[in-house]
Design goal:
InterPro entries: FAD-bd_oxidored_4_C, FAD-bd_PCMH, FAD-bd_PCMH-like_sf, FAD-bd_PCMH_sub1, FAD-bd_PCMH_sub2, FAD-linked_Oxase-like_C, FAD-oxidored/transferase_4, Oxid_FAD_bind_N. This protein is α+β, with helices and mostly antiparallel strands. It has four domains: about 90 residues, Uridine Diphospho-n-acetylenolpyruvylglucosamine Reductase, domain 2; about 120 residues, Uridine Diphospho-n-acetylenolpyruvylglucosamine Reductase, domain 3; about 120 residues, Alpha-Beta Plaits (2-Layer Sandwich); about 100 residues, Alpha-Beta Plaits. It has 18 helices and 19 strands.
Length: about 475
């Protein structure tokens, strides 16, 4: 039952129409929990504006009525940032109807899209004009551009192209008072003061609602080669990426590290996945090289680098994919890890980053502390070595129940986050804070940093109606 007045609800319906307002509990259901069903809340209603003007009017009405808003895109996040609280008084503002690609400027290498555009559709639109939009992640078939920007998404190509902060040139944002900031400028140089777009990218809807963006495009990739490499240690991975960067430069677009435990879960639980090697190895990396040239000799370049690595003991074995099917099979081993781990019971997920040079020491120290404190835990460590981002996830010991294992979640988290901070890292590399890491951020971020963040929140959302309870 909605806690909102009939007059307020009618005013919203006048703005967005009957198609843009959802009050039926059954229809609202999919907007009230995340895709993993890890977070669930209640809402007074769901509003689905179809234009920036409608978003602005909805925000203005909510401000006048002191009703909190929870912006939502594809709802594929991992930290509960787009889920309302349990009060049933908040309004979920879904941007999925705002799905227009407004403009493509090939000469300027930019594309202007609305926040509800699905990432895969954005990639396809770039391909249709012979260009590349490089952000790529597991949820690209359902996540939206607005959500990607709200969490400053990274993905598998950050090594070459950067994250959403690096890919965004301009924004259109509805502010907390209903005004619209039109910053949709496709400029790579604009030295006229504060770069306001960076306040909103990564802010998880707590400062304003991103409704559109100007994004960078890149030349299309015409040559690609992929290899699966067995390694003795994480240090070997750091040595190998240094070697490949020196040899290949920007052609190195992917370098994904995986522990044996990660791969074993995929082999056990994901249909059709096979081990590329006959022998078991402790660590693996997936390497991808790409080039804009049609006949770039990437395979030779990759084989040269791997040959040196094998001779130096950095690599133990390697296989280079010879066709698209083999490329897909190698990537399936990497992309299947998260799903596979779910089959082993609760997965305590920690998305951290440390300097690339610190990855080996971080893994060694944290593995040791966890195994000493929680014997039998299975550590699923994998991630994007090139940008220092590790997904350091923990599964329960074999034979342990879910409840007693989850009782250790906070203690396990503190071991991992304490080590992360000790190595000058971050407790969230690409998933944001949402509600999952809000309290941890209060503990691990510095007092001055938190004060500055609260100052920005107070300045831009003084009433506190933009996604309350998230991030801060």
């Amino acid at each position: 039952m909605s806690h909102l007045s009939e007059a307020f609800t009618r005013a919203l319906e006048q703005v967005v129409g009957s198609a843009g307002l959802i009050q039926d509990p059954e229809r609202m259901n999919s907007y009230l929990s995340d895709w993993r069903n890890a977070y669930r809340g209640k809402a007074a209603l769901v509003v689905r504006p179809a234009s920036t003007a409608e978003v602005a009017e909805v925000v203005r009405l909510c401000r006048e009525a002191s009703v909190a808003l929870v912006p939502q895109g594809g709802n594929t996040g991992l930290c509960g940032g787009s889920i309302p609280d349990d009060s049933g008084t908040q309004v979920v503002l879904s941007l999925t109807r705002m799905s227009a690609i407004r403009a493509i400027d090939v000469a300027n290498e930019t594309i202007t899209v609305e926040a509800g555009v699905i990432l895969q559709r954005l990639q396809e639109a770039a391909t249709e004009v012979g260009r590349l939009f490089p952000l790529s992640l597991g949820a690209e078939g359902s996540c939206t551009v607005g959500g990607n920007m709200a969490t400053n998404a990274g993905g598998t190509a950050v090594l070459r192209y950067g994250n959403m902060r690096d890919l965004t040139l301009g924004l259109e944002v509805v502010l907390a008072d209903g005004r619209v900031w039109d910053g949709l400028r496709g400029l790579r140089k604009d030295n006229t003061g504060y770069d306001l777009k960076h306040l909103f990218i990564g802010s998880e809807g707590t400062l304003g609602i991103i409704t559109a963006a100007v994004l960078k495009l890149f030349p299309a990739v015409h040559s690609l080669t992929t290899a699966w490499v067995a390694l003795p240690s994480p240090q070997a991975a750091v040595d190998l990426i240094g070697r490949m960067r020196t040899l290949c430069g920007d052609r190195l677009t992917g370098f994904e590290l995986m522990s044996r435990q990660s791969v074993e879960f995929v082999l056990q639980h994901v249909t059709g996945c096979n081990d590329p090697f006959n022998e078991v190895h402790p660590w693996y990396v997936l390497i991808e090289l790409s080039d804009t040239l049609v006949n770039a000799n990437l395979a030779q370049m990759l084989e040269d680098g791997l040959g040196e690595a094998l001779a130096q003991g950095e690599a133990l074995d390697a296989v280079v994919a010879s066709n698209d099917a083999q490329v897909a099979a190698l990537w399936a081993l990497r992309e299947g890890i998260s799903e596979a781990q779910n089959h082993e019971g609760p997965s305590l997920k920690h998305d951290i980053s440390v300097p690339v040079s610190s990855i080996p020491a971080f893994i060694e120290a944290t593995d040791r502390k966890l195994k000493d404190a929680f014997p039998g835990v299975r550590i699923v460590a994998y991630g994007h070595v090139g940008d220092g981002n590790l997904h350091y996830n923990i599964s329960k010991p074999v034979g342990t129940g879910d409840v007693p294992f989850k009782a250790h979640a906070d203690a396990i988290m503190h071991v991992i986050y304490d080590a992360t901070i000790a190595f000058a890292g971050s407790i969230s590399a690409e998933h944001g804070l949402g509600q999952a890491k809000r309290e941890a951020a209060q503990h691990y971020k510095g007092a001055v940093e938190l004060e500055l963040m609260r100052t920005l929140k107070q300045a831009l959302d003084p009433v506190g109606l933009m996604n309350p309870g998230k991030l801060l």
